[in-house]
Specification:
With 215 residues, this protein is α+β, with helices and mostly antiparallel strands. Helix content is 42%, strand content 20%. It folds into 2 domains: 91 residues, no CATH class; 112 residues, TATA-Binding Protein. The chain contains 7 helices and 9 strands, in the order H-H-E-E-E-E-H-E-H-H-E-E-E-E-H-H. Strand 3 and strand 4 form a beta hairpin. Helix 2 packs across helix 3, helix 4 runs parallel beside helix 7 and helix 5 packs across helix 7. The mean pLDDT is 94.
Length: 215
């Protein structure tokens, strides 16, 4: 019975995640594809009518004007949070180049409102996911060509999606103190993503890193 309840919960979560995806699919057609490509830096294939979007080193295709997001082989998948992020980026990108300067989540407009969500879904989740899998984290970061930094016990800067970079910092825990993390964003991040988007970014990049850590 417990397994059935978990299955039902997972199905319900997928259903809820699919609603915003379908919404943003319907909005893509209202934007000019060449302008989208220019502002997002995502190449647009006029013949195939598709954008090529790269997330954590992996390519995805987005059909225009339908808005369907598929993998590099054109196959569908059911990660609707990732699909929604991709569509929101294409629709909202303003063409602001990466600056190399970082900002904290609280520096973002609305960051104080959503900080509790950001802390739980990003900071604590990252810290406790990788505190006991340092080698896996190193492997995952190497696979996406992340730039190692010297802050904290471990830290990297990496491209989440075309032209949008994040910095993650991990302080390892021990018998006395729990692990801690900090996540910083390139200063151009708010030009494409709202504080609410950024608060759930952990739902995107942490599962990807976890999967890459196993390879």
């Amino acid at each position: 019975m417990e397994i059935n309840l978990r299955d039902e919960a997972a199905i319900e979560e997928k259903r809820k995640d699919k609603i915003p995806y379908e919404h943003y699919k319907s909005l893509l057609k209202d934007n000019d594809p060449q302008e989208i490509s220019k502002l997002s830096t995502c190449p647009y294939d006029e013949a195939a009518k598709t954008f090529l979007v790269t997330v954590m080193g992996a390519p995805y295709q987005v059909a225009y004007p339908q808005g369907d997001v598929t993998d590099s082989d054109g196959q569908d998948f059911d990660n609707y949070k990732l699909k929604t992020m991709i569509l929101r980026y294409l629709i909202n990108a303003k063409g602001v180049p990466a600056t190399g300067q970082t900002i904290a989540y609280r520096d973002v407009s609305g960051g104080n409102v959503y900080f509790a969500c950001f802390e739980g879904r990003c900071l604590k989740r990252f810290a406790f996911t990788f505190n006991y899998d340092v080698e896996g984290l190193k492997k995952a970061m190497a696979s996406i060509d992340a730039q190692p930094l010297t802050t904290g016990d471990l830290s990297w800067r990496f491209e989440v999606i075309n032209n949008m970079f994040m910095t993650v910092i991990l302080w390892l825990g021990d018998d006395e103190f729990p692990p801690e993390a900090q996540i910083l964003f390139d200063a151009n991040f708010p030009s494409a993503f709202s504080a609410e988007d950024m608060a759930v970014m952990g739902d995107i990049f942490i599962p990807i890193l976890k999967e890459l850590s196993k390879k």
